[in-house]
Amino acid sequence: MDFNFKKIATEAGGFFSRAKQYTEETFLKAERTDLDPHFENLLQRADKTEEHTRRLLSCIESYLQPNPTIRMEEVFYEKLELKKDHAGRMNNLELLAQAMSDAGEEFGSTTPYGSALVKIAQTEQKLGQAEREFVTSSASQTLLPIRRFLEGDMKTIQKERKVLNGKRLDLDACKSRLRKAKTVESQAAAEADLRVAQAEFDKQVEITKLLLEGIQTAHNNQLKCLRDFVDLQMSYFAQAHQMMADLQRELSGSLSEPHIGLFAKASPNTARNGPVLTPGDDLK
């Protein structure tokens, strides 16, 4: 195996030079190159964007899937790019519909109570399907674009910022060596290194600045994602409201009929005084 010892030595020398410069800046308050205010504002906006976007993503994920175990499992399988069929996993509304349907069949759909259970179960099943469609659409139109931004553009920005900080340390280390140079030869060598470091630093500043200015485009894209999310919510809740209104109208007649034992209302006299007895009646 061939090793480029010169390259390894150069990288090691650069690493120790950066470490020395960082230590002097941290503990000895050595001079450091400052970035212009506009660039600093771009960096702060990027940090705030990442912070709030991660929080937003986490909250939307929790809203769409409150169960943390299932949520983490789904992310785990997605990260590994494994295919797993989630069609068999019922949501809470579908579980409720199944329980009501089973109870309705047990009591008999011809009885008032059993019939009501079956009708409610059918609506809850439709609500569960509507919720499933809402969650799926929200994940594809809102969650995934936001996650791609964090795992793509944002990671690239952080990577280039790290490179920029390294170039800045190299530049300041060269400035420090130039100040400490005693001979003409050492000054000439330090000046040559400084010119190279300055050029690399300026180039990296432009690369990072270009990426940071792209944050505005990310904001515009996420704004569209949020609008889509609101539209999906509005459609889902409107659909759910209509389903429940139809169910309420369907049940209102049967639930108010006096012959249904569970829902029959006692007369005021009976409720206060108990059963009314006529002369000759025996208490049993």
TrEMBL record:
GO CC field: cytoplasm
Pfam families, sorted: BAR (PF03114)
UniProt xrefs under InterPro entries: AH/BAR_dom_sf, BAR_dom
Domain BAR: 24-260
Gene3D superfamilies: Arfaptin homology (AH) domain/BAR domain
Protein known as: BAR domain protein
